[in-house]
Amino acid sequence: MDRSWPSFAADKREATKVFRRRKSTARILLSAFFIPLGIGFGGMSLLLLGLRLMPLPAGGSAMPTEIESADGTRIANWTTTGEAPQNVPLAKIPEPLIAATIAVEDQNFYHDHAISLKSTARALIVNLRHGGVVEGGSTITQQLAKNLYLSQDRTLSRKLREALFAIQLELHKSKDWILGRYLNVVYYGHGAYGVQAAAKLYFNKPVQDLDLAECAMLAGLPKGPSIYSPIDHFERAKQRQRVVLERMVATGYLTQAQAQAAAAEPIHVAVHHTPVVTAPYFTDLAVREAKRVAHLSDADLDAGAVRIKTTLDPLLQRAAERAIASTLPSQSGIQAALVAMDPKTGAIRALVGGRDFRTSPFNRALAPRQPGSTFKAVVYSAALEHGWTPAKQVDSKLTTFVYGTSPADRYTVHDYADVYAGRPLTLREAIARSDNVYAVHTNLAIGPQNVVEMAHRLGISDQMKPYPSLALGVFPVSPVEMAGAYAALANGGLRVSPHVVDEIDTPEGRTVVDAPSERVLSSDVAFQMSDLMQSVLGDAGTGYGARPYLHAPAAAKTGTTDTDAWMVGYTPNLVCAVWVGYDSNRPLSVPESHLAAPIWGKFMGTAQAHMPGGWFTAPADLKAVRIDPLSGGVATPECRVAETDYFRPGTEPTEPCPLHSPSTPQQTKPKSGLFGWLRKLF
Question: Where is the composition biased (Polar residues) (predicted)?
Fold first, then answer.
């Protein structure tokens, strides 16, 4: 026997040792596999039990971008359809749309349970390779869970919560319920949520009336609503439709011949209409401002979950629309714009950009037009700042100004209808009458460049030229800019930033609109202008037509060119600019040139009732002096007409009125008898 081999007994003993070692190793391996597996199954059972016992969260569908007024009232859902999602029972949704959706989104929907392990594993590998979520793999149930309960961010933690909510959904709801809910909340683009809104948007028909070709095109949209939109990218939509039809063939719902016939069928996409919403000019501007401030795209707004809180006051907005509608001739093509602003903050409380947004969405509140004599408030603010006083007098007569050495440097000024006072006017009278001679004289006396600089300080952006005609408002300004400029007079000298949005909430967080203010004018000058412009609403003022509608004091200025009619004015609580004219720059008739004042008056009367308040208080360093406007001197008891004006220290008149002082020979004549009676009478 070859002793190099162990004996049988030894072999047996060695084999037994080997077997025991292998058995021990097998036990360890089996324990390492089955114990965690058992714990995993136990943990999974507990998790499923917990999800089953736990009620579903109170979730909603992904909603369109919401636009709110300042008091929180919803004024619009910014969707193309202009409608909130409408629930349609699954039984009323066409079978081809259901089949197309399942074929292209989750062909094993009725066989898998909440999560597709194969799709999830494939997506997980891709996402790990890229270091983030770049591929989905979500089932219809997971997509519904995301729409109902989660944000749209693409993170691994959100995907995990999505999976848990999907499991919970299937523990609580039937497959038909899940599919029906999905079809009623999924986003189809352009602000359309759900199959009913999408059918109306793209094909202008209820979802029940869609044919196979339309169903296939609709089913292809949720994967990329902006990419495959038949409104914006029809050829891409057709390519996506063909993909959906091929999937329907692969799942056995269609034959190849049926798919080809559907692909060849002409698709008639409905005309894209702008939604009709509350305060449409304002709302459109709010959306644009929100996009700029929060760096949002059209797709971000259309996808929803965005809340835009605006500055709108619904009552004032209705008053603005009513004032325009009740004043403009119904059969005329004349247009109007109105901007009402909080002078303290720049928040626009009401805005109308035209008569009818549906027929003309052009926003005239933003359109530059010649402001005419409303620009004189800028001229006189600069003048007061450069030493002029309310007692300053200028002769009102036809005047030719020489402003240079060239023979061409002549400018002849005409007042409206060539009617002049024929005597010197104080600043208050010049503002009330809107005297052009006084304005041009002021402009040239203080220097036109100082007027331009004042306009820019007040927020007017036009690159004006220092011409004599500058004083008459020949350079275009928008109603929003004019309201902003007058706001500085109403708030004591601060330039504010006109804005229509206060806050923007997105899934990424909240953006608060910054509306800074800057002092550009002394409080003294601001008050002097406010006090002087009250005269425009007086008996001899050009804005007298607005006075019957008012309930309290206001400051204002009218303006008229051949093609534009304006009235801009304010109270301590609100500033309002009104423009009336034709888009074509057609000349205004005489009656049309007087339409701005009643619009302004009707609106401001409502505003005064809605926002009651006092009048401005004069700064402590200003001195009130009663003067005779005929002479500019301090009024005496003999002066039959007098006005109270405010002066900065050292600028007030001190000499009594030379026309009506006790030493005037006229005053020493007998005051009795027939002559005295006649003198008093006249």
Answer: 661-670
| Segment holding 180, helix H or strand E | helix 175-185
Report which residue type is found at 388: W
Dig out the tokens for 521 from the structure: 């004018």
The pair of structure tokens assigned to 655 is 């000499």
CA neighbor of 367 nearest in space, from 344, 346, 351, 348: 351
Distance CA(166)–CA(163), nearest Å, equals: 5
User: Are the C-beta atoms of residues 566 and 482 closer than 8 Å to each other?
Assistant: yes
Q: Of the residues 61, 373, 478, 523, which is catalytic? A: 373
pLDDT of residue 518: 96
Q: Is 261 exposed, middle or buried (0-12, 13-18, 19+ CB in 10 A)?
A: middle
Over 50: is that where the pLDDT of 38 sits? no
CA 138, 143, 144, 148: dihedral to nearest 10 degrees?
130
Task: Count Cβ neighbours within 10 Å for each residue of 193-204 and write b for 16 or more, e otherwise.
Answer: bbbbbbbbbbbe
More confident call, 115 vs 339: 339
Exactly one of 105, 162, 214, 321 is catalytic; which is it?
A: 105
How large a percentage of the chain has pLDDT more than 70? 79
Instruction: Please give the mean pLDDT across all residues of the chain.
Output: 84
Q: Which of 360, 424, 415 is nearest to 396 (CA)?
A: 424
Nearest to 554 by CA among 604, 590, 486: 604
The C-alpha torsion from 136 through 139 and 141 to 144, rounded to 10°, is: 40
User: Residue 109 — pLDDT band, cuts 50, 70, 90?
Assistant: confident
Confidence band, pLDDT 50/70/90 cuts, at residue 27: very low
Q: What 3-state class would DSSP assign to 620?
A: coil
CATH architecture label of 79-264: Orthogonal Bundle (1.10)
Does an H or E element contain 106, and which?
none
> Token pair for residue 101?
């959706």
Where does the pLDDT of residue 143 fall: very low under 50, low under 70, confident under 90, or very high at 90 and above? confident
The answer, yes or no, to whether residue 5 has pLDDT greater than 50, is no
Q: Please tell me the distance from the alpha carbon of residue 435 to that of residue 374, in angstroms, as a whole number.
A: 12
170 band by pLDDT with thresholds 50, 70 and 90: confident
> Could you write out the DSSP letters of every residue in 560-576?
E-SSEEEEEEE-SS-EE
pLDDT in tens, 258-270: 999 999 999 999 8
508: annotated active-site residue: no
Cα 212 to chain centroid distance, Å, stands at 40
Residue 412: phi and psi, rounded to 5, are -95, 130
- How many other CB atoms sit within 10 Å of the CB of residue 23? 10
- Residue spans of the domains in the chain: they are 1-54, 79-264, 623-681
Residue 678 has what pLDDT?
46
Look up the pTM and report it: 0.71
Cross-sheet strand order for the sheet of 575-581: 348-352, 335-341, 575-581, 564-570, 555-560
Bridge partner list, 501? 310
d(CA 347, CA 395): 41
- Beta-sheet strands, E only, within 439-500: 494-496
Beta bridge partners of 191: none
Catalytic: 105? yes
pLDDT of 2 reads 37
DSSP 671: -
Question: Are the beta carbons of 240 and 228 closer than 8 angstroms?
Answer: yes
**Dist CA 196 CA 378 (whole Å):** 55
Instruction: Using pLDDT thresholds of 50, 70 and 90, give the confidence band for residue 596.
Output: very high
Q: What is the mean pLDDT of residues 485-507?
A: 96
pLDDT at 55: 57
3-state secondary structure at position 236:
helix
What are the C-alpha distances in Å from 577 to residues 454, 545, 597? Answer: 19, 16, 10
